[in-house]
Amino acid sequence: MCSKVILIFALVACAYGDQPPAGYGAPAPAPAPPPPPPPPAPIPPYAYNYAVLDAESGNDFSAEEEAKHGAVTGDSGFVADVVTELPPPPPPAYGAPPAPLPSYV
């Protein structure tokens, strides 16, 4: 009786063994890479300027700017006049180094 049960289990195992296991196979192919982004649009050239001359209030200023091929050049009309008149700092005072303190363990 025991040998018949073993024989039946062996036949069932052989019947299931002739088929490949489900779920094993080649992996799915990788998706195609996205297309490259389009190049940026060129910067259009421009020129900009203004000027103010008001004798009553004393305002006299101007600015100009020009862009060609992505390079911007121009002048804001501002000229900084900075004057610093300070005495030089005193030299650092060097003294004797501090005496070491005794350490107790």
From TrEMBL:
<feature type="signal peptide">
    <location>
        <begin position="1"/>
        <end position="17"/>
    </location>
</feature>
<feature type="compositionally biased region" description="Pro residues">
    <location>
        <begin position="28"/>
        <end position="43"/>
    </location>
</feature>
<feature type="compositionally biased region" description="Pro residues">
    <location>
        <begin position="86"/>
        <end position="105"/>
    </location>
</feature>
<protein>
    <submittedName>
        <fullName>(salmon louse) hypothetical protein</fullName>
    </submittedName>
</protein>
<feature type="region of interest" description="Disordered">
    <location>
        <begin position="23"/>
        <end position="43"/>
    </location>
</feature>
<keyword id="KW-0732">Signal</keyword>
<feature type="region of interest" description="Disordered">
    <location>
        <begin position="83"/>
        <end position="105"/>
    </location>
</feature>
